[in-house]
Amino acid sequence: MGFGQMAAALPRMAGMVLRTGWEADPRALTGVVLAQIGQGVTAAWGLVAVNGILTRLFADGPTADKLREALPSLTVLAAVSVAAAVLAAWSTALSGRLEPQVERAISARYHEAVTRVEVAATERPEVQRILEAGKFGTDSARHMLRLSVGVGNVLIGMVAAAVVLATLHWTLLPMLLTIALPKGWGAVRSARREYSSRLHWVDHRRAVASLLAYLTRPHAAGEIRAHGAGTKLLRGYEEMSRQMEGEQRRLARAQAHTDLVAGAFSGIASLGCYGMLWWLLTTGGLPLAVGGTAVIAIRTSTARLTSLVQQVNRLYEEMLFLTDTKNATDVAARHAIPRTGRDLPALVRSVVVEDVSFTYPGAASPSLKGVSLRVRRGEVTALVGANGSGKTTLTKVLAGLLLPTEGQVWWQGAGGERVELREADRAQVFGCVGLLSQDFPQWEMTAATNVAIGAGERPRDMERVKAAAEAADVRTLVEGLPHAWDSIVFKGYERGVQLSGGQWQKLGNARSRYRDAPFFLVDEPTSALDPRAEIEAFDGLWALAAEDHAVVLVTHRLAATAKADRIYVIDGGTIAEEGDHDQLMARTGGLYREMFEAQAAQYGLTAPPADGIPSPRRGAGPRREESR
Ligand SMILES: Nc1ncnc2c1ncn2[C@@H]1O[C@H](COP(=O)(O)OP(=O)(O)OP(=O)(O)O)[C@@H](O)[C@H]1O
């Protein structure tokens, strides 16, 4: 931002903060503004009183008489001081009430906008960077409000002094401005330098923060100690901190230089002003009492100016951060998932994917190429394939999280009526979908919340939470904890407990069951479960399909997919094979058959087991190198 842009942006941003303050608490904002104006008026009044006192004191006559005549002005000065103190206290109390509300409003606006951004847009580095930069300005609104009030206060005081000075003699006003200008220049220059430094170093700072966070995170504790990763991280931290210290030194030097230049010009201007005052007094252009008032006004205004410079400096800096937050909120709104769209058919029976391709933003090649499939309610549809073949990407397309780059996704009703994903009301699409992703979020909250958070706005129903947990085989575990459902499933909190990987996965399963959506999309839902729990989890998925849910199962456990109604084998983003287990096993040289036989061979089996999970043949353990 250039100087002109900054000067233009400041009133706009201050206006935004004030508007937000008005929406949050109009009474508090009105009070703060009135208190500031009141303080300005008292300052002007005080100066007039001082002038009155000096005029009486410099008049001819006995000192006792002069003091007596100055008494009314002295009383006014005392009253004005008390009023100024009361107004300042009132303003402080109201600002304290207003600031957190403004911060909350701006922060909520930003975070709400960010959570509504299309997933594909968040994958674009340029969007990601803008959204990320917006994080740092959410508390700037609060600081800006405080600083705006402070700057307003000082400015009103200075304007009052300027008016009084201009009334006393017109030359006194340009004098005041000449002293102010160099300091204002210095303030803006420093603010811009600080901001651009922060912007350049933002990735570096983030990297340092995440390095330090690893050192204290429980899940990294093992490798930090056993693998000596801690020493390496600490060395990295020291090196990166040293680079940042270098930048701090550069900033401090530049700041000192700017301060020196601004101070020198301001000093020269003060000298000129006092010289001018001298000349006016000696030539009789100004009465001595007015000269005295002018000296007092210039001195208090210079003190105010120093505080103004500091506050404007911070204000500009905060404004630049707040501008980032506003930009991020605007960019997020531009890439938001539409709030409107066509209604889905009353009873969606299937999702039909037609010739869909998808390329992640910035990726060199597509992750899905010409994929066509149908997911029906009442069936289990399995997606299998090698790592990176595109299974997770396809589930995200099915869930409406990613819009295909080419092709269509139809949400189809019982009578064949259908709505394409891009036109559909996405809230309704999401309402039909229950997700259990590979890396499902583990909320640092209570066990009950971790289950019930999967149901959006619906009020929590503990009976259903318990039933979902029962179905996911985690109810007994949770209810055996010291604080049962109120336990926080993260160690380090009061009431905190540590769950194992498999226990977490069961809790995740319970969450998707509690959601009870017609389309379940589950990605490796049993990777951490023991064999018995795994069998039960798969049985549960089949039971859901029998209850007329559609289940899309992504898994590498081919013994489980053997019972699926339809299996799609994905290879390099395309559907290489499809059919049920028997059809796919009948294809000599087929990919599915090859994968299945490779897995079965580990157990010494050639045919799929009847109960879904192969059991080892007597005497056939894992091969020696695999057991390592
Ligand atoms: N956010 C992303 N940005 C760019 N490329 C991605 C992104 N996510 C996945 N990919 C790429 O898309 C391809 C398919 O990934 P996907 O996660 O869908 O595979 P998958 O079949 O689910 O793999 P796995 O079995 O390992 O979970 C991979 O080549 C991967 O590198």
TrEMBL record:
Tell me where the transmembrane regions lie: 37-59, 71-90, 154-181, 260-281
One Gene Ontology cellular component annotation held by this UniProt entry: plasma membrane
The record describes its membrane topology as: Multi-pass membrane protein
- Record key words, sorted: ATP-binding, Membrane, Nucleotide-binding, Transmembrane, Transmembrane helix
Question: GO molecular function of the protein, one example?
Answer: ATPase-coupled lipid transmembrane transporter activity
Alphabetical list of InterPro entries matching this protein: AAA+_ATPase (IPR003593), ABC1_TM_dom (IPR011527), ABC1_TM_sf (IPR036640), ABC_transporter-like_ATP-bd (IPR003439), P-loop_NTPase (IPR027417), Type_1_exporter (IPR039421)
Does the record's keyword annotation contain ATP-binding?
yes
- Pfam families linked: ABC_tran
Keyword Transmembrane helix appears in the UniProt entry: yes
Going by the entry's taxonomy, the superkingdom of the source organism is recorded as Bacteria
The subcellular localization recorded is: Cell membrane
ABC transmembrane type-1 domain location is 31-317
Record protein name field: ABC transporter ATP-binding protein
